[in-house]
Amino acid sequence: MTARVTGLIKNAGKSLEIGAMETQKAYDLWSQQYDTNVNPTRDLEGKAFRQVLEEFRFSKCLEIGCGTGKNTEWLAQKAASVTGVDLSAEMLEVARSKIKNDHVQFVQADVNADWHFSSGSYDLVSFSLVLEHIANLDTVFQKAAAALRPGGYMYMGELHPFKQYAGSKARFDMHGETVILDCFTHHISEYIQSAKKQDLELADLREYFDEVGEIPRLIVMVFVKA
Question: How far apart are CA 98 and CA 147, in angstroms?
Fold first, then answer.
């Protein structure tokens, strides 16, 4: 991925830039505390993932952006086969340490490149908090559609563009520093139109809020392959 990360130190109310690192390296660092730090976006997406997909039936799943396996564990209880893909080797190591299941495999890959990990017709392809790191939705959605069987589903759960308009980005604190990831803002219409180009029809759209009256934190969509 070409997205980059800027590390900032909070000092007397000011932000001091200390350098940049690649997205992969940032998530490698984040893996040390990803499951334990305060992260309302992570937690709400996990809740949304289960609520939205609870009634769906699927056997073969491709999970893009599996991270430390927060959703993989749940998928493994419903599906006969799950392939979890992530850019970060360290995130995947955490996932492997938690999930011991013969029908779950993990693959490190950049989803902007060739999908060498894709092995046929999936019932479900999911994206969880990963598309904000993807510059070109068309390319990735084309690959997802090609991996789906007719009638298969593509799920996406992402930071709501309204939150991005207000300045929210993926970030974490480490050793007194705040690491803020550079992200791409995708509008709701962009998601829908990019999917439409691949004959992916919108089947469900939901917004998730922290509190009533606030701007939504998450946008969740499910598309079905025609």
Answer: 27
CA-to-CA dists, residue 140 to 30, 96, 114, 163, angstroms: 24, 25, 10, 23
pLDDT at 105 exceeding the cut of 50: yes
How far lies 213's CA from each of 209, 210, 217, in Å? 8, 9, 12
Q: How far, in Å, CA of 87 to CA of 97, rounded?
A: 17
CA distances from 21 to 2, 8, 105, 110 (A): 10, 12, 28, 16
Bigger pLDDT: 2 or 31? 31
Q: Give just the sign of the alpha carbon dihedral 95, 105, 182, 161.
A: negative
Q: Give the Cβ contact number of residue 163 at 10 Å.
A: 20
> What mean pLDDT is predicted for residues 113-132?
92
| Token pair in block for residue 216 | 């939504």
User: What gap in Å lies between CA 66 and CA 138, rounded to an integer?
Assistant: 21
Q: Average pLDDT of 74-84?
A: 96
Question: Under 8 Å CB-to-CB from 81, ≥6 apart: which residues?
Answer: 59, 60, 61, 103
Q: Locate all alpha helices (DSSP H) within 166-211, ordered by sequence.
A: 188-196
Which residues lie below 8 Å from residue 212, measured CB to CB, with a gap of 6+?
none
- Neighbour tally for 113: CB within 10 Å: 10
Burial class of residue 100 (count of CB atoms within 10 Å of its CB; 0-12, 13-18, 19+): exposed
